Amino acid sequence: MKVRGKLVFKSGDVPGLVKLIAESLSPDNVPGMDTVVEGDCASVTFEGEKIGTVLSSVDDYLMNARIAEDVLGLGK
Questions:
Q1: What total number of domains does the chain contain?
Q2: pLDDT for 18
Q3: What single DSSP character describes residue 49?
Q4: Which residues contact 10 (CB under 8 A, 6 or more apart)?
Q5: Does 19 reside within a domain?
Q6: Is 16 a member of any domain?
Q7: In the chain, which stretches have pLDDT less than 50?
Q8: Which of 21, 22, 48, 49 could form a disulfide with 54 if both were Cys (CB 3.0 to 4.6 A apart)?
Q9: What is the edge-to-edge ordering of all strands in the sheet holding 33-38?
Q10: Contacting residues for 42 by C-beta, under 8 A, at least 6 apart
Q11: CATH code, 10
């Protein structure tokens, strides 16, 4: 069975923020991950054979996105 999930990030407040974060994280994409940036949106698709694998990938991605946000000085 294939498990698939998708995260969509939108940035209306800081132009280019989503693109910057998505591009900085995309080199770490593992097989089964795909990042697409269009305008002020970035979507990341996760796919795997086991739900636990997909959930771990999503968790890692969100943690890294938060770190990128903090590095840029935008974290609260």
A1: 1
A2: 86
A3: S
A4: 18, 40, 41
A5: yes
A6: yes
A7: none
A8: 48
A9: 3-10, 41-48, 33-38
A10: 8, 9, 18, 19, 21, 22, 35, 36
A11: 3.30.310.50
